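Ligand: SN-glycerol-3-phosphate. Inputs:
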Amino acid sequence: MTKKFLLYSSPIVLMFMAVALFEPWIYRNLITSGEIDGRLKGEHFDIIAHKGASGVAPENTLAAFELALDMGVDMIELDVRNTHDEEIVVIHDETLDRTTDGTGIVHDYTLAEIKELDAGSWFGNAKYAGEKVPTLKEALDLINGRCQVLIEIKHMDHPHYHDFAEKLIDIIRQEKNGYDWIILQSEEVEYLEAAHEYDDHVKTKKLMIGEDSTPLLAFYIETKMHLGRAKEDDRMKALNPEFHTLSTRRVFRMHARGFQVYTYSPNEREEMIKMLHMGVDGIITDFPDRLVQIRRDIEAL
Ligand code: G3P
Ligand code: CA
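Predicted complex:
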């Protein structure tokens, strides 16, 4: 009897598992519209420039931030790392190679050495040649509350990142009304907890692992885990998942537990519109100008 039951039920169980795993694909490719329609009328969403307007200017430079401000974004996302002399610079990778003319690990260089580098020429547009790697302070001083800022704290597994969240908060405190417009986000919940322990005024968002870098199953488990702990920990006001991992149902479940959902980084108009139909609260994109246009098109409905 048990054998027969297993034999007949296993295809059904497998089918449910497949649907659960491929749910985001099914929603994105078979269910959700990539067209603007009346259902989006009146919907509020935040436009977040990923590493500044990084589709049209070299990422994480003052030029990319200024351009994003010109486009009228609500928020700028940027990434921070430590230099050898414990200064905080705005750069995505652990190494200098991809986005500067330098080579090697960021933390092996002092700020003065990093300031010698060209962080613009790699982008291939002569107008950005000679752009510098900015310090966090320079980036925040430039933005100066004209839009919100989402600071991503990169990987935890470096001894030199000790007290990193605390150092960021010290910089945030130097900005006028910094707590109102600067938010910390990280995949590493420990950083966010350390930030709250140091100063409970700081706003944080939990970045979720993405399907691009981890198996879908891992994302699924992490989603479950964080949805489960939402009640105990109300300080992480948003979950920021990679856009390939979302479905309308998942966004609904995150909302039901009191989280906002900011997704990264759809760059095509159709993909952005699909995310809006799924109900996300914000989109982190390399091409914020495209999202600004979508907002205008929705307003014109
Ligand atoms: O803000 C989320 C997003 O920036 C995370 O991915 O690799 O672009 O930093 P990454
Ligand atoms: Ca980032």
